[in-house]
Design a protein that fits this description.
The structure holds 2 protein chains of 2 kinds. By secondary structure, chain A is mainly beta. Chain A is built from no helices and 11 strands. By secondary structure, chain B is mainly β. Chain B has strands at about 5, 10-15, 20, 25, 30-40, 45-50, 60, 65-70, 75-80, 90-95, 105, 110-114. The chains are: A mainly beta, B mainly beta.
């Protein structure tokens, strides 16, 4: 079945450690996205990529990094520079811009101890 | 400025009641796209509907219906005869034409009580 996978579902890390969240899609979509969701809040865009080997900062990119070496993969690294990394992270993809809905993964809940 | 406002933070209804979730958007673009997503307790957002700015036709899909009015910049979502399974957070989103950045509202948490 086509879709987006994110792993792991729950992730615990010690403060000061970098951690990488996985996102893979087999929908053959060009665009991929990372969002952060805090309790009771909406989705905030961290990074997005329109095409392989290209990505842009979203609204809250500080303390995060991404790569897009393959069309199907868009990993997100939460660095130690991110001051409050505990949150729910959602990956999404879409087939280009204009009128195309996003497909979302199941999310990763990151807790920094 | 481009913005989506979902003023209702949380709504509680009793099963079988009708409920409307409000969405007001701001954009200067003449071409844009609007979406509704449902986020159940599992966390994954599920796409419900999309509309482009040139299509003001209302849509009904089973118990769901959407009212798009450009004159008031609103794209409201109504659930008829609500069920417990409708309990979720619902997000409205705006996509300006030619961009990849979706603009989400803060969501409305709907609780349907048995």
């Amino acid at each position: 079945d086509g879709g987006i996978t994110q792993s792991p579902k729950y992730l615990f890390r010690k403060e000061g450690q970098n951690v990488t969240l996985s996102c893979e899609q087999n929908l053959n979509h060009d665009a991929m996205y990372w969002y952060r969701q805090d309790p009771g809040q909406g989705l905030r865009l961290i990074y997005y990529s329109q095409i392989v080997n290209d990505f842009q900062k979203g609204d809250i990119a500080e303390g995060y990094s991404v790569s897009r070496e393959k069309k199907e993969s868009f990993p997100l690294t939460v660095t130690s520079a991110q001051k409050n990394p505990t949150a729910f992270y959602l990956c999404a993809s879409s087939q280009g811009a204009n009128f195309n809905e996003q497909f979302f993964g199941p999310g990763t809940r990151l807790t920094v101890l | 400025a481009q913005k989506v406002t979902q003023a209702q933070t949380e709504i509680s209804v009793v099963e079988k009641e009708d409920v409307t979730l409000d969405c007001v958007y701001e954009t200067r673009d003449t071409t844009y796209y609007l979406f509704w997503y449902k986020q159940p307790p599992s966390g994954e957002l599920v796409f419900l509907i999309r509309r482009n700015s040139f299509d003001e036709q209302n849509e009904i899909s089973g118990r769901y219906s959407w009212n798009f009015q450009k004159s008031t910049s609103s794209f409201n979502f109504t659930i008829t005869a609500s069920q417990v399974v409708d309990s979720a957070v619902y997000f409205c989103a705006l996509l300006p034409s030619g961009t990849y950045k979706y603009i989400f509202g803060t969501g409305t948490r709907l609780k349907v009580l048995a």
